[in-house]
Amino acid sequence: MITALLFGSFAVMLLLGVPIAVALGLSGTATIAFAHLGVISVPTSVYTGIAKYPLLTIPMFVLAGTIFDRSGVAQKLVRFATAIIGQGRGALAVIAVVVAMMMGGISGSGPAIAAAVCGVMAPSMIRAGYPRPYIASVIAAAAATDILIPPSVALIIYSVLVPQAPVTAMFAAGIIPGTLAGLALIVPTLWLARRYNLGGDQSHEPRPPFWRSLWDASLGLFAKVLILGGLRFGIFTPTEAAVIAVAYGLLLGMVVYRTVKFRDLYSMMVEAAEISAIILTVIALASVFGWAMSTLSIIDPIANGIVNLEIGEYGVMALLMVMLIVIGTFLDGVSTFIILLPLLIPIAMNYHWDLVWFGVLLTLKIAIGQFTPPMAVNLMVTCRIAGCTIESTFRWVLWLIFTMFLTLAAVVVWPELALWLPRRMGF
Predict the structure, then answer these.
(1) Residue 410: what pLDDT?
(2) Transmembrane residues, as ranges (predicted)?
(3) What is the pLDDT of residues 61-85, one digit of tens each?
(4) Cα dihedral sign for 330, 332, 338, 340?
(5) How far apart, in whole angstroms, are the C-alpha atoms of residue 75 and residue 277?
(6) DSSP class per residue in 233-297
(7) For residue 3, which of 296, 257, 224, 259 has the smallest C-alpha distance?
(8) Start-end of H helices in 71-109
């Protein structure tokens, strides 16, 4: 009865269009009140949900992403990628994928990267004759890899909720799978472009000079080296790395490129504060939902039921894959982690799965959900900017989803894809 009330009320509110954070908080509060656990515990759960030092990383990395976006780094990365890839059929689409991966080392929010890359790339791709649904599909899929490529908000949240997986290890573990996912997306992107002759008229366009483009983009690319290098050598903590990223972005935008003025600082801070407030509100109210689940012992019977299905370790893994990808189409990564990690971690520990590897798998599954219709958050952003409907993307996005599934399967079969680099870096 209690379980039905908790999950049923949450599902009903989602169907009624209630914001996810509010639905989580209200369903958790209603269940706590019905079970006579004391509603006074709700404010405490809200506070303790966000009173965690590592969460300071989130607003700083969001602000860093906003600064790099406004400073014109994306345009310089596009020019550099064009100098490498050139022009011709599918070239602009491949450039969009590469730029999204590069931007993922600056801001770890999939929807934010989707908006930034689509805003830069969509106009030129539309002029080159690329279908709008194709543009939206490719950029949404490419931006989904950014929750794996550090710094990543999803990996930070996972590390906060699972202390056995430190954020430095999670950042290192996400690099190879995230890069592999991005490179894998290039295959169907190019195949579709060549099959339908997309961008063929651009083959006569000249390439930008390579060395000049590299020089212009090098300072932006150095941000990832600065963040990961500082973490690797213990120069600063992940939270300090986020502050360093903000300072470095301001240095580029205000001193080097001079594209950011003092009057722009206020609007950038407001934008970053709004995005961060949304993320932290979801975390705070989802904590009420999670507290209700753990206090009422809802988690253990479900976890035991899954383990006792007698479908084996890989059968359970396949079940979790399907479940998370379906849930990921409706919920963002933060909500998914907070709701499901109390259920999933006992299952992982039962099978003695490495929790760093398991975190990468969960994040990769959520990444697939971010561009899987009908409620894909990345796809919603790119469709709005490109000017098309989600329904029109089906014929294009299914190939990209299939490719990401193959990447997910590779990480399942070869855990070293996620674990080799953290071990090599000493995390």
Answers:
(1) 92
(2) 51-68, 80-103, 109-126, 138-161, 167-193, 214-235, 241-260, 272-294, 314-343, 355-376, 396-421
(3) 778 777 877 777 777 777 787 777 7
(4) positive
(5) 28
(6) TTSS-HHHHHHHHHHHHHIIIIIIS----HHHHHHHHHHHHHHHHHHHHHHHHHHHHHHHHHHTT
(7) 296
(8) 73-85, 91-103
Query: CA separation (Å) from 154 to 176, 198, 302, 338, 373?
Result: 16, 34, 24, 11, 20
DSSP secondary structure letter of residue 149: S
- Do the beta carbons of residue 139 and residue 121 sit within 8 Å? yes
Residue in this structure with the two tokens 């059968």, named with its chain if needed:
315
- C-alpha 270/C-alpha 401 separation (Å) is 35
Helix 333-350 and helix 355-369, axial crossing angle in degrees, nearest 10: 140
Which tens digits make up the pLDDT trace of 146-184? 888 877 778 888 888 888 888 888 888 988 998 899 899
- Can you state the angle between helices 333-350 and 262-295, rounded to 10 degrees? 40
- Nearest-angstrom CA–CA distance, 170 and 175: 9
| pTM for the structure as a whole | 0.79
Q: Residue 203 and residue 201: Cα distance in Å, rounded?
A: 6
Q: What CA–CA distance (Å, rounded) separates 117 from 69?
A: 9
